[in-house]
Design goal:
- This protein is mainly beta and 495 residues long.
- Helices cover 13% and strands 32% of the residues.
- It is built from 8 helices and 35 strands.
- The strands form 7 sheets. The protein has a 6-stranded mixed sheet, with helices on one face. A 6-stranded mixed β-barrel has the order 8-9-16-10-15-14. A 4-stranded antiparallel sheet has the order 25-26-31-30, with no helix packed on it.
- A hairpin with a 2-residue loop joins β21 (348-353) and β22.
- The radius of gyration is 22 Å and the shape is globular.
Length: 495
């Protein structure tokens, strides 16, 4: 999740009582390029023929085989997956698929707007819906936020001694790891028991004068705060979501053998917003406080994941390079983008539909650059690039009636009279001539049992940063060699 810059600690001391937070009201090679398909489908030339119902998740959980015999690996599951214990509540069972998707896409746009705000800080920012967000140095909101159903992917780790198991969002767009902690001034509802630091023999707070406390500014975008000598953190992700509390250290357990004492994280006492019923967030960004940096001696600043084709399957998050993926092809991270140092910038060279490269000037992708993000659901493209993609895709889908736009998706089709459909391939070529042929589930998104839309959206301005979202990453092994300065893609990463 993208963070914003807030300055809210000067009055913090007035809101604390002794050492506890009593109240915080502030809120296949092709020519010279590598081309690889995400999975096997019936493919004729440059088209996929698929069963329409294959775009829908099943009602039962299917575990992937990709993590078998891998060390330092966590199982990944979707927030709305039958594989997730977070679905065992009334919200998950009574909300319709279309309503749920509409909320996910709405939250996704909010995330994109705040990523833009972080990358391009200005005093007044207007999103695509003409909502104005004023001066990122204003206070955190005092009003309670709403616990939305988000479209994020989750993992389970352990914190404390003895270990307490917590389900956390994993996010390549964030740096600081945090979880809700007792006693709460204000906490949203979560599925796991809220972590109680007094029950952990290895827990301690970070002091204000320490070098660790001074690192919070770059990790959170906020000024430092103190209470009776204890370092405070505050982080905001959107207009309703934030976490405020003590900056702390405790033992982090990734697996039974991968245990990290003195792991730095946020122990949140005042938390509200867009986190579903998870216990918090794991930051996989570049900052020194991210999980990747804090575990670098063991994992070498290398991690990879695979997101499953549908939410009824599991994927994996692997820390370290276990060298089990031999088909990875790497594109260099784009180091020319000076803003957003925590984000992972990559370079798109071209887009092809049904094997034909679209007539898009490469400069279109270079104006504001592109990041890869595990938390953004739908890939965002420059306006002219998206227009070219939409036009070409509709030409190859002319046999199917068009249908009205759904939320942020405007290239949609009525498939009510079809059980199987034929869609054109879509591929993106990144720097280094790495061509990624998307999985059908990364091309078309089912809205309901009769409609589906192209799973891309256009930015509102050519100066907006592009985002390669998690829908398009499905089924690939996506490997972040942070130390080596490159990003890898490998087909069949969940198998």
């Amino acid at each position: 999740m993208a963070t914003l810059h807030y300055s809210f600690f000067p009055s913090m001391k007035l809101m604390l009582s002794s050492s506890l937070l009593v109240a915080l009201l502030i809120p296949c090679f092709l020519q010279e390029s590598y081309a690889f398909e995400a999975r096997k489908t019936k493919k004729e030339s440059h088209f996929h023929t698929i069963e329409f119902n294959s775009l829908f998740p099943a009602s039962v959980c299917t575990s992937s085989t990709g993590s078998i015999k891998r060390q330092s690996t966590l199982e990944v599951f979707h927030r709305h997956s039958p594989c997730s214990k977070l679905t065992q509540d009334t919200d998950a069972t009574t909300t319709s698929t279309q309503s749920q998707l509409n909320q996910i896409l709405s939250d996704d746009q909010s995330r994109v707007d705040y990523i833009r705000a972080r990358l391009n800080p200005v005093d007044v920012f207007t999103d695509r819906n003409n909502h104005k967000f004023v001066d990122k140095k204003t206070n955190l909101p005092a009003q309670p936020g709403e616990s939305y159903n988000t479209g994020n992917y989750l993992v389970t780790v352990g914190i404390g001694s003895p270990k307490k198991t917590l389900t956390l969002i994993f996010d390549t767009g964030s740096d600081l790891t945090w979880t809700q902690c007792q006693p709460c001034t204000s906490c949203y509802k979560q599925q796991d028991p809220i972590f109680n630091p007094s029950s952990s023999t290895s827990y301690s707070n970070i002091s204000c004068g320490s070098s660790q406390c001074s690192q919070l500014t770059s990790a959170t975008g906020n000024n430092l705060g103190c209470s009776t000598g204890t370092c405070l953190y505050g982080i905001q992700y959107g207009d309703r979501s934030f976490s405020v509390g003590y900056f702390s250290k405790d033992t982090l357990s990734i697996t039974s053998t991968d245990v990290f004492p003195n792991f730095l994280f946020g122990c949140g006492r005042n938390n509200q917003g867009l986190f579903g019923k998870t216990a918090g967030l794991i930051g996989l960004g570049r900052d020194p406080l991210s999980l990747i940096s804090q575990t670098s001696q063991k994992y070498g600043k290398y991690f990879s994941y695979c997101l499953p084709s549908t939410s009824s399957s599991t994927g994996h998050l692997t820390l370290g390079n276990d060298k089990t993926s031999s088909n990875l092809k790497f594109t260099p991270f784009d180091t020319s983008q000076l803003q957003g140092a925590s984000f992972y910038f990559i370079t798109i060279n071209s887009i092809s539909v049904a094997g034909t490269q679209l007539p898009i000037n490469q400069a279109v992708f270079q104006t504001a650059g592109t990041i890869i993000d595990s938390g953004t659901v739908i890939t965002r493209l420059p306006p002219s690039a998206y227009s070219a993609l939409s036009t070409a895709f509709k030409q190859h889908m002319s046999n199917y009636p068009s249908s009205p736009a759904f939320s942020i998706l405007d290239t949609c089709f009525d498939l009510s009279n079809y059980t199987s459909i034929t869609i054109p391939t879509v591929s993106l070529t990144f720097a280094g001539n790495v061509e990624v042929d998307l999985d059908p589930n990364g091309i078309l998104l089912a809205v309901d049992t009769t409609h589906a839309c192209l799973a891309f959206a256009g930015n509102s301005d050519s100066g907006d940063t592009g985002i390669f979202g998690n829908t398009q990453q499905k089924t690939f092994e996506v490997a972040y060699d942070v130390a080596g300065g490159k990003l890898g893609f490998g087909a069949g990463g969940c198998n």
